[in-house]
Queue: 3 jobs
Job 1
Amino acid sequence: MADLIQIEDPNDPGQLKPLLRPLDVTGVDEEGEEMIILSDPMHLLEDSVVLPAAYLPLLELLDGSRTVNELAEQLVKETGELESGQFIRNLVRTLDERLLLDSPRFREAWEKYAEEYQVLPSRPAALAGLSYPDEPDQLRLFLSGLKGQAEEFQIGPLPMEEAGTADTLIVPHIDMRRGGATMALAYREWEKSAPRIILSGGSERPAQIVVAFGTGHSVLGSLVALTRKDFETPLGTVPSCKGVIDSLAQRLGRGAFAEEIAHREEHSLEFQAVFLADLMERGARFEMVPILGGSFHPFLAMKEKPSEEPIVEEFVVALREALKEDGRPVKFLAGVDFSHVGPRFGDKWEMNEDSLAALQEQDLAVIDAALTGDPDLWFDAIASQNDSTHICGFSSVYLMLRTLGGAKGRLLRYEQSPEQESGSVVTYASIAFESAGAWRQ
């Protein structure tokens, strides 16, 4: 984690070099006044901070390159108003008090937050009661409704050579109230492809391993972030595969758990755990290997391919070896979404029929690359547009496809979820792959 407030002289607050932490910034209109909402993707802060949109240029100045004194002098010079110098000092102090700057104050709070999570015996369900019901019977009814919608999506039977062979899934991680039916459609593939795990007597059979790649929204600098914690859901606990996780971590080194805290509030795997728990209630036996992928934007900035980075190859080899060492049947999934476009995501973009059609065409080109099972084609398809649509699962899909070592994909469903209030849209899809265990070779 980079130092966002650098201290040259701790006794002189004016020598602090403030840099804003990575935050989610959303523009809103409140009674005709443009405002911005600052939200913490790490969820250290429960409440968002609302500021006038006019503050945005000031926030952009907080890049760690100038001291508070230098910023104050710059603003006084630019505005001709002495009050602007004190204003920026007050703003920096307020942001620091709200833990929006990576200062000693933030570091202390963050370390306490991480320590509290580390001692928990399992990962609590962070979004139960928010994105899905937290009461078991209500959740079962909710999931039943999603499955009913998914059945309506499926038009006609699959060809015999395709039915029941999927061992790998790409599943959305959008809010289950929006994209839950498309998630349910993906998990129908596992009911068909593994009937042995939902027959009676499942408790006597060895658990299948599910390697789950999630999008690490708050992973800051790591390629991957692991956790050994079991995942709690209202339908029961999905156990982690501690043997494989420990074996993988031993091969990767101490850094494998460096950003474990990112799992605490991360929804991209929590939603998958709910669907796995649903299958487990009906006889399935799973143990999950939860892996959050970090950002691939450094590769885009350096115009390099992940395949050229030794740490990527080290991870793939380590994961394959850990799974082979265990020897049990393995399934893979990636909990990802696709494009995030519009003012909510910092784009000057107008949502209309033509722009949505163009976005779909762009998305399907990227999805077609994924269907080949070739991770480099997937990377190239996104890199060719410089990830202009903010695909949320870039690294996770790449790492999964690299681990598979070859797979045939089928697009089950593609969806766009417009947000009329913000004029923005999120897209997502469910995809099934048949890898035939190529990764074992």
Note: The CA atoms of residues 131 and 175 lie 6 Å apart.
Job 2
Amino acid sequence: MTIAVLGAGMVGRAIALDLANDFSVSSFDVSEQNLQLLKQKNNTIQTQVKDLKDYASYSSVLQNFDLVVTAVPGFMGYNTLKAVIEAGKDVADISFFPEDALSLDALAKEKNVTAIVDCGVAPGMSNFIIGRYNAEMNIDAFEIYVGGLPVHPKPPFYYKAPFSPIDVIEEYTRPARLKENGTIVTKPALTDRKMIHFDGVGELEAFNTDGLRSLLFTMPHIHTQIEQTLRYPGHVDLIVALKQSGFFSEEKIVVDEKALTPLQFTSKLLINEWKLGETEEELTVMKVILHGEGKTITYELLDYYDAATQTSSMARTTGYTCTAVVNLLAKQLVIKKGVFPPELIGDDKTCFDFVLNYLKARSVQWKAKTDHLTVTS
């Protein structure tokens, strides 16, 4: 089976390397440097420098591939996914784009395509977990907490990003949609801040970001839905200060007769400040909490940079969830046509167990526990 991986950033490379153990893989990226880093780790992977914004070329470029993975930046994710579907190829997508992927469902059915979207860690594994338990019990509420953090945080930001700073800033500026008392509400990102203790990490600050996405619409019966991002204490205060001071504005200003946006300047400035080194230690911490039927079910993840393979935790937890989904498609464990977020795949126990076991085999270990409500008279 032949697979095309569109995007060779940190996560895209991890995906290509994992899939190359079992499939014939080709990687496409506009950056020759990204592709060379991939080749250094596995020279059997075919690489091609390609402007992936050339959507009109997808039908010819992807013609000889059986499956496609889209691992491009969020700003081009929707158009990339649409072009792959129009090319008639089954696809697993990890692009965190603001548009509604479900709007492509009719096109996918017309093209006889299976598209599984948002198949990373969050969104991704959180959706799988919620979809699985939604099939078994009445869920009243759920909370998702997730963060990718450096093991050795340094001031002033106490943060490093495994992907582009502009994608991180997008999390901090895009309004967050939540569900409270059965109603979808929109709040500014970075709001409802609270401190939470995580074993093995310590105190982290949680705040609203727009991560629920499809769950708001596929799980309308769950009256309370919350997702929050995690950072070390001190980070959010700096981000709020930058935001309030206009550093994330997209309105152009003129500096020395040159027009640019504060966001362009800030992103350029933060590239070096936030850039995660290729071998820099970082971790992914995550908790999914489900409430219903007198019990609380908690899934927890604490994953670290893998020194043996020099693979970041965020690349592992995101990328290997995606490659598990690719294997679901390759093994024809999912054959229905259309666009599906993970909760509409995870409702099948066979698929859910396959993904968990696939991750476990790669030392990405989810721990689950159930606490029953004690009623006293």
Note: Residues 125-304 form a domain with the Dihydrodipicolinate Reductase; domain 2 fold (CATH 3.30.360.10).
Job 3
Amino acid sequence: MSKKVSITLDDEILNFVDELTSDRSSFINEVLWKEKKRIFRQELEDAYTEQANDPDFQQEISVWDVTVGDGLND
């Protein structure tokens, strides 16, 4: 779903956009999607780092690793 919105851009930024594309909306939408993806990936990386540095979480994982392996033949 798309919505029409009005935004205000500095003249320099608008000139820059116009130099790169004839479709302002698509260009701005693409830039914002890339930024959203970048932020998501950074948050995910931060969460993985936090888990890796959490000794309680690592202990819990090691318990589950043993449990999952119970009764399995190598």
Note: The radius of gyration is 23 Å.
